[in-house]
């Protein structure tokens, strides 16, 4: 159970299919919302505006007219821009295929077609594509020939895992593409997830115009989503509900196809994340059984995402705001601590809290050194 009524409503609306019981839960959660005027902006922040509107309509929840209008406008915008993205992605995939460049479409740009009933239900800020190190120069040439422009240096810097973003204005929308040479930013000398590191066959999917594209294999895709959402660049950011929707819905859709013994052996992080997310949105019995999960018998009332530094802004208008910010930074919820710093084996709150303090110190040091380097250049 989630105490925050807004997060509870969003968590219920991450579902792609509604059962009668879920429909009732959505209606009951909606009845607890006291101020609907903030919902469209919060839904957009969580990447949930189209899914929220779809689920509220299916549950026959009556909304204030202004809120309904805002959600319709946001949903229509995502539908239109994803249509533009689809055409652009098709053209790029064809260019890669003609040039014999191996690639993988990542995250939302693939999930919009693999997972969601309509591509417009999956908002995204950019399109991510993984290629080999040796193909980076040729890929840049292809993008520039297609009219994309790049800001900044053309090489992958040491503190990033992709090239500077490519941009192109199409039909009034700015399309953004990130070209990755590996999937995640690691602290080790050999980052995980270069094209050469992938172990499974790619998963194929169809774009709306019939072009066939490929993404990671299902197990690698699920692992990448879990790692990206909670452990890589977003380690100290607030929970984003569209990432919860991606992870749970992907696991539910491929529950019978995934080899959970391989997942347990090679990607145990997936099971840990799914167990934690059971407290955000209950998993099906089929998934719990197939993935050998052991979630809490009774879901706790204390669910609370991370709301501290560096992602959450400091409220300076009142002393209570500063105190709350400091508390959230140094003493986040036990749920979040175990998700971020725990593992398959249960860990004490003290151990995961100590890991959090070390992580805060490391992050503060990294940002300070980067600021000094920037000032001296």
Mean pLDDT: 89
Gyration radius from CA atoms, angstroms: 21 Å
Strand order of the largest sheet: 1-2-5-4-3
Low-confidence stretches: none
CATH architecture of the largest domain: 2-Layer Sandwich
| Biggest sheet details | 5 strands, mixed
Number of domains: 2
Shape descriptor: globular
Beta fraction: 5-15%
Helix residue percentage: 40-55%
Question: Helix/strand-derived class?
Answer: alpha+beta
Cα distance, first to last residue?
50 Å
CATH topology descriptor of the largest domain:
Beta Polymerase, domain 2
Order of helix and strand elements from N to C terminus: HHHHHEHEHEEEEEHHHHHHHH
Name of the level-1 CATH class of the largest domain: Alpha Beta
Give the number of DSSP strands. 7
What is the number of helical segments per DSSP (H or I, 4+ residues)? Answer: 15
Describe the structure.
With 377 residues, the chain is of the alpha+beta class. It has two domains: 299 residues, Beta Polymerase, domain 2, CATH 3.30.460; 74 residues, no CATH class. A five-stranded mixed sheet has the order 1-2-5-4-3. A hairpin with a 5-residue loop joins strand 6 and strand 7. Helix 14 packs across helix 15.
């Amino acid at each position: 159970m989630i105490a925050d009524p807004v997060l509870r409503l969003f968590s219920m609306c991450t579902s792609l299919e509604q059962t009668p019981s879920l429909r009732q839960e959505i209606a009951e959660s909606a009845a607890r919302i006291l101020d609907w005027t903030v919902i469209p902006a919060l839904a957009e922040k969580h990447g949930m505006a189209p899914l929220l509107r779809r689920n509220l309509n299916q549950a026959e929840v009556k909304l204030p007219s202004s809120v309904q209008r805002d959600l319709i406008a946001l949903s229509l915008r995502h539908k239109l821009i994803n249509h533009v993205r689809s055409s652009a992605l098709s053209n790029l995939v064809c260019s890669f295929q003609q040039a014999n460049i191996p690639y993988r479409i990542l995250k939302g740009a693939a999930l919009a077609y693999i997972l969601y009933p309509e591509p417009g239900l999956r908002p995204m800020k950019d399109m991510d594509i993984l290629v080999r190190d040796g193909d980076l120069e040729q890929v840049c040439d292809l993008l520039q020939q297609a009219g994309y422009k790049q800001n900044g240096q053309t090489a992958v810097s040491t503190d990033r895992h992709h090239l500077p973003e490519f941009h192109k204005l199409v039909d009034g929308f700015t399309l953004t593409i990130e070209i990755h040479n590996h999937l995640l930013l690691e602290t080790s000398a050999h980052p995980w997830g270069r094209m050469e590191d992938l172990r499974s066959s790619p998963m194929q999917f169809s774009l709306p115009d019939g072009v066939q594209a490929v993404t990671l294999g299902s197990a690698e895709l699920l692992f990448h989503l879990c790692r990206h959402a909670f452990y890589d660049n977003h380690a100290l950011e607030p929970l984003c509900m569209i990432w919860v929707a991606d992870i749970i819905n992907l696991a539910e859709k491929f529950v019978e196809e995934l080899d959970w013994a391989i997942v347990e052996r090679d990607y145990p992080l997936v099971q840990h994340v799914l167990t934690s997310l059971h407290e955000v949105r209950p998993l099906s019995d089929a998934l719990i059984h197939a993935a050998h999960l052991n979630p809490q018998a009774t879901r706790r009332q204390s669910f609370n995402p991370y709301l501290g530094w560096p992602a959450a802004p400091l409220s300076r208008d009142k002393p209570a705001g500063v105190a709350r910010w400091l508390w959230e930074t140094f003493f986040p919820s036990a749920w979040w601590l175990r998700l971020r710093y725990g593992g398959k084996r249960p860990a004490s709150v003290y151990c995961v809290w100590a890991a959090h303090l070390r992580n805060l110190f490391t992050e503060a040091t990294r940002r300070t050194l980067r600021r000094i380097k920037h000032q001296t250049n």
